[in-house]
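Protocol step 4 of 5: obtain the predicted structure for the target chain.
Materials: sequence only (see below). No template structures provided, no constraints applied. The aim of this step is simply to have a reference model before the mutagenesis design in step 5. Sequence pasted as it appears in the construct record:
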Amino acid sequence: MIAKIKILVLVVCLLPGYWAEGQVSYISDINTGGSPADCKPPKNRELFHDFINAEQKKILRSDGKNDNQYTPSTDDDVNFILTRTLVSRVDALQCKIENDSAISAQDKIRYLRGLENVLKFFAANTSAKKVNPVLLPEILKAYDNCMDADVAGRSIVNVIERLPYETAMSVVKADRVTFEKNPGYRPCQNIIVFKYCERSPEQVFPILRDNPDVPFADSLIKVAARKEPMQLYNYAQANNRLGNRIRNIKDDVFVSTIARMARSRSGQQYFPFLDNIVSGKMTIEQIDEIRDDSVKYYKLLVKTQMDYTGRMLNGDTAFGYRELTEKIRKRAADVFVATINGLHEKSDEVRFRCIQPLNAEELYYLAVMTDGLIYTSSYTKGVYPLMMKKIGGRGDSLLVNLHFDHYRKFLSQAAAYNTLGDFLSSFSNHSDADDLMKAFVSKLERANGLEDGVDVADSYASIVESLPSRAAEMLKNVQLNYERNIGENNQRGIAIYNILNKLFLSADSNSRIDLTQELGIPPVYNRNWEYHLFIIFRFQHSPMTAAP
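Step 4 output (structure tokens):
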């Protein structure tokens, strides 16, 4: 269809009389109001046409070539249409402005300057990747429609509110003069704000900071609060108009609760429990009773984490879940691990005294949340044996209690500290241990981010040395998952399991797998741990980072 349009336009362009006096009679829905010969402007407006022509030429040369072609796309047909639009439709708009007897001389200058500014704005924002170049025809049509409405004394709101954000913004924000006196100009400023917030909901608070008085601010705050509660907390603390607006919302318990936290010096202590506070399961006063006791506060964090994780299994993600996990990570590191690491030269009785009040689940989170920080001896002599003792030597029961939260991180850590065999042997049913290790390497393509895949990769070197039969099963399951993803045409999964398969095979010196050739990384499993960073880098820059 596009090819037919190209041929039709080309034929029309070759017709006698198509070009005249530097202006083009464009075959479009624009009524130029006269023949091409009538498009020559009077002397006192030639300069404004020259400005427009200069902008056209700048855009044509924006690809670095002086070939009178606008080529922002890899599609030749699209480039052809955009070039004709830039040349012919802009020229047709110039003709229309000149030939419309309903437009005064001063207003003709205003609309010509407006058209120039639309082109300038388009050039700047396509260069900055803020506007898609293929929208040029739509932008020019929108400007034409706004001009028609303005000439007729009608509001431009009816035009702008129907447009997508980039198109609407390209007309309304191009300058502050062209439609300044139109009754719809100021409402359109608000429409642009709303459209931007619709398109980029994560930017609601930054945009409201600059536009706190838009009439729909409260509604946007209430919606955005549930998507970005920590942003709401931060903006509610601010001593500015947006902060005041947030704090004055009283008819939404979620917003008002966060605003109350933000006004408190202990607000960050309350925030991890946000969902339970809003739902009435917990009060700020109850948190106040224990927040200065490091052990009790940590226990409450873990209890809440287990509650939230259980809810997630039923599709109910609690507000503040990410912040809760980060708070546990920080408390585990600062209060407990820093202490037992620092006392590594003391007796075990002294060294591990601070973790004695913790139960098995609390010790589990202590371990997994401080991976990379906790010393080997802190783990093997203190945290792990105490955890297993307090769960009655039943690792399977522990994972069930925890809803298998962070289990891949735990298994990877256990492999690194050579406790994985002991942990798996504690299962009452050995087939459950087999199923767990099968799940460990399965469905990695469904995980958010890359951490689970890295945990599996990191664990293999230790497992192949201490538990070779487990390693063989891991390799087999990786290959089965690779085949499954090929069958499902899941490119993310194919990339993940292709990398894991080659990494696992490279651990065998007889495999002749050259990681440098296969994956572009140095050998991993026969080098020091720093080479594992190459695995992570490879994961982050491989095709698997694209959405499935």
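Step 4 remarks: Residues 1-37, 524-548 have pLDDT under 50 and may be disordered. The CA atoms of residues 408 and 452 lie 6 Å apart.
Proceed to step 5.
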